Recover the amino acids of this structure.
C-alpha cells in the first residue's frame, strides 16, 4: 500500500503543478480540433474538419474494477454519449494485489440530463465492458474440460451510476470529477477527466 | 484551478484511507484484506487450545459448496450456531463461483457470526481467476494437517483441471497419512471425491489404495452437491468410508460424531 500512497502524493503534486493550470495548450488544442477547412472544387465549396477523428476526452481513473489506475481516451458524441477505451493496471506495487491484472475496458457513459442539475451536477449512467487479462481466465474453456463446465470469466459487464460535477464553478470547462457507484456491487470509483 | 486539484486530491486520500471495502480495483484482485488473513491458521490456534493429547470424543460439522446460495448459506451458519457441542466446522470448498475477489469478501462476511472454529478447504471453483492467490492469502496453505484429540485430520488439495495438471500431490498425502504415530482415527478431507470425472480411474483407485493402506477411517468430500455416505471402493480394495455433503441449497448439516470405537454420521435438515 506504500506505492498506493506515493501515487496519491504524486497525483496531488501533479494536480497542483503550474503547467496543468496554464490554459493556453488546452485552448489551442481545442481550437485545432474544431478547425474547419474550406476547399473550392470548381464551383463548389466543401467544408471539411481535418481533425474529425481527434480524441476529445482523456481520462485517468482510480479503481472502479478495472485496475488500481487506468488511462484512456474517447469521444464526446451526440446525445451525451461518451465512449472511452481504457487500460487498467493492478499489481503488488499498485493496488497491493498478489497477482498482476491488466484490463481493457470499453466504457459507455451517458449524461442523463442536457444541463447540470442545480447548475453543477450532471447525473451519469452507463455500462463498461471489461476484458480481464490475468491468471486462469478464459473466454473459451481449455480443451480438457467437458463442454459448458464453466461460464467464461474473462469478460465482465459493469453497470454504473453516478454524478459528474464540472469545474467547481470555475470559468473554463476543463476538468470534470466523477464519483460513481456500480449498483450491483456497491463499488465506488472516481475519475479525473480532462475534457478538451 | 488550483482549488480543484486540491479538492480532488483530498477526496482521493479520504476514499483511499476510509473506504477500503467499497473500492474495488478489480474482480480479479488477489489480496485478502487486513484482518482477513490466515483464517485457517486462526481456527487451528483455537482448536489447539481445546484439543487434548489423549482421545476424547468430539463432533465436527461438514458443509460445502455454498457458492451463489448466499441466503441458504446465511441460514446454515445460523443453524450451526444453534447446535451445541460442535468442536469445529469444516467447509468442504467451492466458497465462490468464479474465484473473484468480491465473492471471497461475501464469504468472509457471512461466516463472521459463526461461533465455532471454521476450517475452509479449497474447491475447484475457488481456483478460477486469481481465486487460488486469494485463498492462500485469506486461508493459508491448501495442503495441511493437524492433530485433534489424538485424531489425525488431513486437508488435501485435490484440484487438478484448474491447474492444468493430471495428478494432485499424492506424495504429500502419502507422507502425511503414513505417519508412525498411533492415532485413534484418521480423516482425510478433500473437495473432489476420487470417483469424480476430475480424477482419472487410476488416480481414484490409487487414492483409495493409499487411504486403505494407511488405515484412514473416513474420506470426506464436497463437490457433488448431494449427500453421500458409503464404502465406494469396497468392491475393489479396502474398507474406507466415504462421506460427501450437499450444497447450501440442500438445507442440511452433516455432523460427524467421533467416539473411540465408533464414528457416526447424522444429517440435520432445516
Amino acid at each position: 500500500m506504500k506505492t498506493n500512497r506515493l501515487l496519491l502524493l504524486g497525483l496531488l503534486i501533479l494536480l497542483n503543478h503550474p503547467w496543468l493550470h496554464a490554459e493556453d495548450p488546452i485552448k489551442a488544442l481545442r481550437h485545432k480540433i474544431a478547425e474547419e477547412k474550406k476547399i473550392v472544387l470548381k464551383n463548389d465549396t466543401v467544408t471539411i474538419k481535418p481533425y474529425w477523428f481527434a480524441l476529445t476526452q482523456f481520462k485517468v481513473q482510480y479503481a472502479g474494477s478495472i485496475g488500481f489506475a487506468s488511462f484512456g481516451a474517447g469521444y464526446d458524441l451526440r446525445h451525451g454519449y461518451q465512449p472511452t477505451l481504457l487500460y487498467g493496471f493492478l499489481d503488488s506495487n499498485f493496488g497491493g494485489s498478489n497477482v498482476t491484472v491488466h484490463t481493457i475496458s470499453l466504457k459507455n457513459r451517458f449524461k442523463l440530463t442536457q444541463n447540470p442539475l442545480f447548475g453543477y451536477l450532471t447525473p451519469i449512467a452507463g455500462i463498461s465492458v471489461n476484458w480481464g487479462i490475468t491468471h486462469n481466465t478464459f473466454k473459451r474453456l481449455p480443451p480438457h474440460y467437458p463442454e459448458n463446465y464453466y461460464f467464461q470469466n474473462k469478460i465482465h459487464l459493469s453497470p454504473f451510476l453516478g454524478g459528474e460535477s464540472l469545474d467547481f464553478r470555475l470559468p473554463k470547462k476543463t476538468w470534470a470529477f466523477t464519483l460513481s457507484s456500480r449498483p450491483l456491487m456497491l463499488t465506488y470509483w472516481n475519475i479525473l477527466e480532462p475534457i478538451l | 484551478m488550483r482549488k480543484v486539484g486540491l479538492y480532488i486530491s483530498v477526496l482521493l486520500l479520504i476514499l483511499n484511507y476510509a473506504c477500503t471495502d467499497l473500492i474495488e480495483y478489480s474482480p480479479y484482485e488477489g489480496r485478502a484484506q487486513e484482518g482477513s488473513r490466515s483464517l485457517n491458521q486462526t481456527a487451528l490456534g483455537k482448536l489447539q487450545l481445546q484439543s487434548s493429547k489423549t482421545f476424547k470424543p468430539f463432533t465436527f460439522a461438514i458443509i460445502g459448496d455454498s457458492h451463489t446460495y448466499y441466503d441458504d448459506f446465511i441460514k446454515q451458519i445460523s443453524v450451526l450456531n444453534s447446535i451445541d457441542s460442535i468442536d469445529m466446522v469444516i467447509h468442504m470448498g467451492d466458497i465462490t463461483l468464479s474465484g473473484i475477489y468480491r465473492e471471497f469478501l461475501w464469504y468472509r462476511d457471512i461466516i463472521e457470526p459463526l461461533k465455532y472454529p471454521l476450517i475452509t478447504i479449497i474447491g475447484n471453483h475457488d481456483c478460477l481467476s486469481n481465486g487460488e492467490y486469494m485463498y492462500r492469502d485469506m486461508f493459508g496453505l491448501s495442503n495441511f494437517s493437524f492433530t485433534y484429540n489424538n485424531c489425525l485430520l488431513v486437508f488435501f488439495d485435490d484440484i487438478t483441471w484448474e491447474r492444468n495438471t493430471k495428478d494432485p500431490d499424492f506424495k504429500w498425502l502419502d507422507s502425511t497419512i503414513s505417519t508412525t504415530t498411533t492415532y485413534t482415527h484418521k480423516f482425510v478431507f478433500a473437495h473432489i471425491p476420487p470417483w469424480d470425472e476430475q480424477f482419472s480411474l487410476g488416480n481414484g483407485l490409487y487414492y483409495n489404495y493409499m487411504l486403505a493402506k494407511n488405515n484412514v477411517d473416513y474420506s470426506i468430500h464436497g463437490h457433488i452437491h448431494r449427500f453421500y455416505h458409503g464404502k465406494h471402493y469396497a468392491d475393489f480394495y479396502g474398507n474406507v468410508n466415504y462421506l460427501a455433503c450437499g450444497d447450501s441449497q440442500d438445507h442440511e448439516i452433516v455432523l460427524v460424531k467421533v467416539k473411540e470405537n465408533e464414528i457416526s454420521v447424522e444429517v440435520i435438515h432445516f
In short: The radius of gyration of chain A is 20 Å. The helical segments of chain A are 2-15, 18-21, 24-34.
